[in-house]
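thread: overnight batch results

M.L. [08:02]
morning all. the overnight job finished for the chain we discussed friday. pasting input first so we're all looking at the same thing
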Amino acid sequence: MPELPEVETVRRGLAPVMEGRRIDQALAHRPDLRWPLPERFAERLTGRRIAGLGRRAKYLLADLEAGQGAPDEVLVMHLGMSGSFRIEPAEGEAQAPGEFHIPRSKAEAHDHVVFRIEGGAQVIYNDPRRFGAMLLVPRAELETHPLFRDVGPEPLGNSFDAAGLARALAGRRTPIKAALLDQKVVAGLGNIYVCEALHRAGIGPERLAATLATPTGRATRETRLLVEIIRLVLEEAIAAGGSTLRDHAQVDGTLGYFQHRFRAYDREGEVCLVPGCTGTIARLVQSGRSTFYCASCQK
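M.L. [08:03]
and the structure it wrote out:
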C-alpha cells in the first residue's frame, strides 16, 4: 500500500493540474470502490472548484469551494493497494504522478473515476483491486470523522516530537515495529519506512515499544534519535519522488523511486550498509508483514 511519501508525491504531481481549477465534469464508471461512492457523487463534484489539495496521513484531501448552494466539503481520496492517478493534459503525453515500489496499472478497463478539469486536462483514477476510496465529508466534520478522529500526529509536523512519541509508547508491550505502524501513534507510516527508520536508528523491530520510554513516560536518547530519523527517511523519500516528478524521467509508476536507497527493506541476505557492521539483512514476519532488519546492529 502506498505510504506517506508516495501519497505526498502524488499530491504534488496533481496540485498544478487541480488546485484552483474547476471540475468541469466528473464521471464515475462504477458505483463503488472499496466502499460505495457517495450518493450523486459525480453530480455533486461537477462544477466545483478545488481550492486546495492537501494530505492527512495516507489520504488526499481536495478542498471544494463552497457557495451558490454548494456545501463546504472535502473530497477524501485513498489509493488503497493498487490505486493511482493518471493525468491526461489538454495537449501532450499522459503522466502518472508518484513512483511506487509495486507497479501501478495503466489498463483503461480499471479507470473508475474521471475528473475533467477546467482547461482541458483529465485526471483519471485507476484501481484494479478497488481497495481505494473516495468520500465527500463536510469540512466542519473532517477532524471528527471516523477515518481521522483517532489518527496520530503527522510525522513531518511540529506536533510529532520525542516527548509525544514516548508518551504514546509508554507501557506498550507490543513490538516497536507494530507500535509505529499503529496510525494512532503516528500518521502515515507504513511497512517500508518503519523498516528503514528502525534500521537507521539501530533499534530491533521485535523490541518492546515500552523500552523506548522511561518508567515515567519520558523520552530517551533513542526516542529522540528515532524521531529525527523518521523525519529524515520521509524527507529523503519525498525529495526523491519530487525530483522524479520534476524531471519526468520516469512517469509510468513502475519501480519505486526510493527503492535504490533502501538500506533494509527487501534486501534479505544482502550485506548491511551500516559502516563497520559485518551483518547481513534478515527477514522475519510480524503480524503478517515482512520485516527486514540486521540482527548485528539493531538491538
